[in-house]
Structure formats: structure tokens, C-alpha cells
Amino acid sequence: MDPPFKPSFPENLMHKNRLHEYAQKSAIPLPVYSSVNEGAPHAPKFRSTVLIDGETYTSFRTFSNRKAAEHDVAKVAYEHIQKKIKESCPIILEDLDSKRTIGSGREVNGIYLLDALPLHQSHNVCRDSE
Asked: What's the predicted TM-score (pTM) here?
């Protein structure tokens, strides 16, 4: 048996990807990032903001490069969205990172089903009920 796949880049750099995937799966516009240098030109301090699904998130910290600031704000947004989904959909609780079903459901050929809907559609079900 092959060992589990391990990404070649650090975990903290995966949040932009996860946020992008969430937008695609939820059929909402992709995240839009903006960064501001709050430091001097020779010693930049970037803070980023991301707009996704009508919500704006801002990084708490500043970083010496724009890319790190964007990854940080993506983590903030992704974790907030994940928490919001879990709180607003108590029946359909999905761990967005591992794709495990926490609530009721059944597995058929590796796909989790709830009321005959694939679990990956649960985000839209929750969004429509708000």
C-alpha cells in the first residue's frame, strides 16, 4: 500500500487553494485579494484583504511580502467559513479538510450521500436555507 499523499509545500500555503476550491464547489465568484504596504519601501509590511461570497476578511498580522499576507488572510477566511458552515448546518457537518462525514449519511462507492444528494452539494443546500 502506498503511503498517503503529502503535499510538497507547507500546510500554511494550502489555504489559498482551499478557499479557491470552496468558491468553485459553492458556485460563487472566486476570491479577490488586495494588499496594502503599511511599512516603508525599504521595509515593507503587507496586510491583505480577501473578498469572498460578499464577505471581506483582513489579515491580523503584517508580512514582509505580499504572498505571505495573502496566504494568511486566506487562512482567516477559510477557517471562518468552515466554522460558519458547521454552525449553520448541524445535520450536515463536513470536515472540509478531510471530507469525512460527521453527521448522518451513508457511503456508496466512496461517495457520502445524504437524502440521495452527494455530500459535496451540502454547501449549496446550507446556503439556500439561510
From this structure: 0.62
